[in-house]
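Could you show me some protein's one-letter sequence and the numbers that encode its backbone in two labelled lines?

___
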Amino acid sequence: MRSEYLEVLLSRRRERQVPMAVEQGSPVKEPLYQGNGPLGLREAMESCPRKEVDNFQEKLVEENFYLMTESGEQGRLPVLLLKLNDTAPERKPVVVILHSSYKCKEWLRPLLEAYASRGYIAVAIDSRYHGERASSKTTYIEALNSAWRNGDTMPFIFDTVWDLIKLGDYLSAREDVDPSRIGITGESLGGIIDHDCIMILN
């Protein structure tokens, strides 16, 4: 099953393998949330309290960057990474958290900070047609409609799984990451994606 799934993902790529490349990014000052309905309660994202850490904000390290996962405009994966700047040169566990439909990686920041306060490297990405991969508040729904009407694309879930495979390769190669302790979770759409990702990686 795993090899068949991976072959399906590879068959979707314009170029079957694109060399790993990383571009420096910067913090997103005005995150793009799509749709016209309510986003949901912010308190839900803050339900996992931070561990008490002296001078937490001063010790918090934020990295914003892009991974090139494939050719084309949607192959540029925006990544937000938070961790504590401590003196211990040990490899840390990683948790990747995925957002739900119409949101973006910045929505998850309270959760990322909570995990970072507990010694994790906490990571979030923008799924396909979300956040920095969107150009308007209707980008995601327009992409869904186009895929439904034209029938010439796979569900974006599979493409985001591809992004996460490449993210896993990148994280495993970092000197501050314990590659045997990389976990993934998500809410709603993010939960569906992480289920598919776990299936192919196990």
Observations:
- DSSP finds seven helices and six strands in the chain.
